[in-house]
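Journal club side-thread
Mid-discussion, someone asked how the predicted structure for our own chain would compare to the paper's figures. Pasting it here so we can look after the session.
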Amino acid sequence: MTKRARDPQAGWWCMPGGYVDWDETVEECVVRELREEVGLVVNPSDCQLLGVFSDPQRDTDGRQNIDCCFVIKMGDAQISPNAEEVVEWQWFDLHQLPEKLAFDHGPMVKRFLASATS
């Protein structure tokens, strides 16, 4: 997870992500955002959709956004965070997440855990 450098919710932990650019698929967005935020290079074929999160209250800056959450196969890749977007990064046990978790990333982790046990 990364600790956000920018508002909304600067200083809170979240999974890397961002907005889809024009003429970009959501898979291409995942690849680009991971590269931009944490220096992680992944192939679109290594991105598996976990789910779509669309609660109208999921964002805290007055806009209504949806999130397409992906599970990524990353192997032995190195993390190199972008200091403009990320204050720090850290691996967490999925059963012991930080208290200040941004947006609805907690329910995303819960869905992943539920899918991993089924």
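Post-session note: The two ends are 24 Å apart (CA to CA).
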